[in-house]
Design a protein that fits this description.
This protein is mainly α. It is 75% helix and 1% strand. The chain has a two-stranded antiparallel ribbon with strand order 1-2. α1 packs across α3, α3 runs antiparallel to α4 and α7 packs antiparallel against α8. The longest helix has 28 residues.
Length: 286
Amino acid sequence: MKELTKFSEILNKKLEQSSFPLEPKGLYQPLDYFMRLGGKRLRPMLTLMGAEAFGLNPEKVAGPAIGIELFHNFTLIHDDIMDAAPLRRGKETVHKKWNLNTAILSGDVLFVDSIKKISEVESKHLPEVLALFLKTAQEVCEGQQWDMDFEERESVSESEYIKMIQFKTSVLLGCALQIGAIVAGASKEDAQHIYDFGLTLGTSFQIKDDLLDAFGDPEKFGKQVGGDILANKKTMLLIKALELANEEQRASLEKWIAKNDAPTEKINAIKELFEETGAKSSTQNA
């Protein structure tokens, strides 16, 4: 806990020094609002941890750590648009509080700002750090596209789901750790090992996030509970439910998946089926 407090202080100090311009207000005010919503700051903390693990003062990677956080928030703003999500961290999403065009453009400039912060490393590390970050950014976009594609498909395998969440979520955790390791001068082998650890951590994190989307406390979860169900997202819960269901349960699932005019009833019915089929406990085990 002491280490996390130290990392948090480093990040907060850097964020205060990295305030957005005042004008144009319509571009930067939504970003100031969104960044003040907080969040766990898990990804930038991983960058600091990655550096410290290999003997570097974590303050030396505060810039890239903030870059990782800005990029993450860029993806959240655009994810909320694509998911038509009304809430993020318990507050109105940018596109709901302002409008769609503002959210798109503010997200775009946040991505640009993230690259600027990622680049705050010694010149000898810059090519490797930028190559890793840009590869990761592309993979996150590919994962998001697969996530949307899967909504239109009747079936998705567990292996396809794992690959999708690794690209959409896990690669950024691996990237965050590896950037810290690279700047600290870790060997290529060690930098790869810490990346792999982040990939595994992120996969578990996303499976749990899918579980909370259906069964979490909305006050703690900070997002609309049941959003994945309404969007027919092929989460681990749904994949397991279809795999474990008997004929009657499968027919009921398919009926509710096709139904879009009763959102509350749909969420409650499918959650019940997740429990009856054993999908909930299977996902918890995963």
